[in-house]
Amino acid sequence: MVVDDEESIRLAIGRFLRSLGYEVVTADSGSAAIELLGSQRFTLMVCDVRMPGMSGIEVVTQASAIDVDMAILMLTAVNDAPTATEALSQGAMGYLMKPIELQDLEAAVVSGIKRRGVERMIREEVALRTEELERERSTLRGLTVSVAATLINALESKDVYLRGNSQRVADVAAAIADQLGLDPDMVEAVRIAGRLHDIGRIGISESVLNKPGALTAEEFDHVKDHVRIGVEILAPLRHLGHVLAFVQDHHEHWDGSGYPRGLSGDQISIGGRILAAADAYAALTSRRAYRAPVSDAEAIDDPHVQR
């Protein structure tokens, strides 16, 4: 596309480019050029800088947003370095002075088309590799969760009161995250964290976990250590992303009375806050060695109910 308010220049450039085998469309103003871009695709635009109405700089800015793959060359009769710099910063690939040597115009057109082609190939290759890496990361994440879930199932199978607990927490946590309007990736991260949140229990004594009565201070400190153990188990799996922080925070309390770091309020990750609520709900509504389950209403509404 050739954009210039001077008809003689449009005709001359158009005639020359057609002689080189290019298909050429012309526009006598910036607004006309933008209208054409709304209905057609072009490989390259040759655009005057100074035109009545919409300036060439404005055309470059809008055209670059409409078609990132289109090469843009600017024309000007004035040697204006600041304007040239602005045009190039907005997406133009070259800046030609009038009157134009046809040989220079041909070289600039060929160079602009080739360069845009290379840039497009690079973008496509990067997008393809990114997609492949994301698929590989997703596969690895799925395998990791599967292996960890197997360990958790084996751990929970030893305690009739804990069987299926991590899955219940995961389901409740994901439902809360979804209800809060978190994006799908974050909802999935919360679900995975719920599945893995108690993996650290593998390092806690079964006699303490299954104790029917109240725990001593020493025993409770031992139980609390499951968060540290879980984080250490999962830490090498960096591809889990937010999941690690959510697992680490799932026993933190809004008032700062939780563990292991005593975080409070917004210091606690959103996933950690969701897991804390989901874990408490699942614990209260499930039978334990030391108490019967409470109803859903009691778990949600009664602040005096103890886990």
What does this structure look like?
The protein is an alpha/beta fold and 307 residues long. It has twelve helices and five strands. The protein has a five-stranded parallel sheet, sandwiched between helices. The protein is rod-shaped and about 95 Å long.
Give a concise summary.
By secondary structure, this protein is an alpha/beta fold. It is built from twelve helices and five strands.
Task: Classify the beta-strand content into a percent band.
Answer: 5-15%
Total beta-strand segments: 5
Placed side by side, the strands forming the largest sheet appear as: 2-1-3-4-5
Distance between the termini: 72 Å
Kindly state the percentage of residues in helix. 55-70%
Mean pLDDT across the residues is: 84
| Rg over CA atoms | 32 Å
What coarse outline follows from CA principal-axis ratios? Answer: rod-shaped
Count of helical stretches: 12
In the predicted model, the low-confidence regions spanning at least 5 consecutive residues are none
- Alpha-beta content class: alpha/beta
Order of helices and strands: EHEHEHEHEHHHHHHHH
